[in-house]
Amino acid sequence: MPSGSDSGSYDPLLALDDGMADGDVAAAAAAPVDHRGRPALRGATGGWRSALFIIAVEIAERFAFYGVSANLITYLTGSLGEGNAAAAAAINAWNGVSQLLPLLGGALADSWLGRYRTILLASLLYILGLAMLAFSTFISTGGNQCSSAAVAGGKTCPPSTLRVAFFYISLYMVAVAQGGHKPCVQAFGADQFDPSDPEESVSRSSFFNWWYFGMCGGTAVTLVFLSYVQDNIGWGLGFGIPCVVMACALAVFLLGTRTYRYYVSGSKKGVVARAGEALAAWRNRAKSIPLLPPASQECHPTATSAPEFSTGVEEDEQVVGKAGLVEQAKGIVRLFPIWATCLIYAVALAQSSTFFTKQAGTLDRRIGDHIQVPPAALQSFISITIVAIIPVYDRVIVPVARRYTGVPSGITMLQRIGAGMVLSLVSMVIAALVETRRLRAARDAGLVDKAGVPVPMSLWWMVPQYVLFGAADVFTMVGLQEFFYDQVPDKLRSLGLALYLSIFGVGSFISSALVSGIDRATAARGGSWFSNNLNRAHLDYFYWLIAALSALELLAYGYFAVTFKYKNKNKGALLATSTSC
């Protein structure tokens, strides 16, 4: 991390804060600086050279995160002895916290620490959490007496309270670390491209595609390699490898320090304080102006609007400041309909790492006579599909679409998000149909009450639903990242990406609530949809429910997407335009 010494590099954020008045910092905020706090030279800093360091860090971070999360349901239902519904609810709750904490991490980065320092501190916490997670697997179970009794009876001892507590503390440390890491790394990567430069502006739009390409390439390796290690060698090594990878990622991040472009916040007030002032100013303005002028007058105000402005220079500045706060508040609030109408998409996505994995574990997973595919490895088809489609999308589909639409990114961000939501809906329909067939195969083979015997149905039946989720992610996930980076106020971009992540946090909580509520309601009637014996469960009903909710969500999303006005009115992708009339 840049230090404050006179010789060598130092933290540009501290240098500017100490050496500039508020007005000077505000003036410098629009221009990036290098690691010494000097104006950043385009040829020496930023661009793809710096972005590649950051993409490498993200690949490693996703390797670590999915190394924990992808096969977590197997660990909870196996080593920790939890039931299917309880394990799924616990994972969804943890995922919810993981995806909501970036709101705090993004706020801290934008208002206090800066993105560079937030990434650094989060990486250190990540490494500590992963190391503790690996250590938790070596804590003994119920003691020697329990172990002897279990061995004699052919059963496994339940884990000790200490082991469970230590595991969950470690797991939530990883969630906190991800909350600081995730919103800042991508925003910091996009900061390496200047939107006012035509060439770098195009590169920044492409950056979001290749960012996701690299991230999913790393995830695919994780899901195949680590799930095999965890299922066949041991969970200690399975959790320890992500710790080592994360330590290497921190080293790579530090290597790029001298090449990065840094941006300094133009205000010393925190995000919470600025948001509070903005909402208060908006509320006061609404009270004082009962009727807003027609849209046609926004750019050409009539003479009757003149008395609203100050009669002196000092009052003019105050009004202008309040107007800026109002615009920041409106810039966040206007994104809420899009945010809200993407939540069921997140609920659907949550099933890929929970019930999809449990389903796969009941199927015939043999390849030849000696290889058995780990259930969690099927999730790699999501990443493989993304890796296969993104180059085609970026190099073929976008140029062709650009000719017909005139949009630099081929289609608008909201069109891209909507296309992915349609694919997600189709994926849930296919998942429901495949589960119906699996239940019929179990029934026909007389395996309804033999949960430990593989159902005579190949696991490849489940591949299409994973592939469709991967295709959906190419459109919706990348579109959401670009949308929430581009459409928030410029000074709140880390917070914007945190808002994007919060969709999946709230979606995970919704999924957890649905699973818990449905489990209680259906168990009371004699047969839970999420029975520990999946041959007696009804995951197909659950998937049909999600598909129906997705269809309703898609209708609402279509309405709000059509009526949404982009901050940059010439496109719906990343272009710098003036906000003046």
From TrEMBL:
Gene Ontology annotations of biological process type: oligopeptide transport
Annotated GO CC locations: plant-type vacuole membrane
Annotated GO MF terms: low-affinity nitrate transmembrane transporter activity
Highest taxon, organism lineage: Eukaryota
Entry keywords, A to Z: Membrane, Phosphoprotein, Transmembrane, Transmembrane helix, Transport
Pfam family of the protein (one): PTR2
Transcription listed as a keyword: no
Residue ranges crossing the lipid bilayer per the database entry: 119-140, 160-177, 210-229, 235-255, 335-356, 376-393, 414-434, 466-485, 497-518, 541-562
Subcellular location: Membrane
Membrane topology term: Multi-pass membrane protein
Keyword Transport carried by entry: yes
Protein name per UniProt: Major facilitator superfamily (MFS) profile domain-containing protein
Organism: Oryza glaberrima
Organism ancestry: Eukaryota, Viridiplantae, Streptophyta, Embryophyta, Tracheophyta
Name of encoding gene: LOC127773671
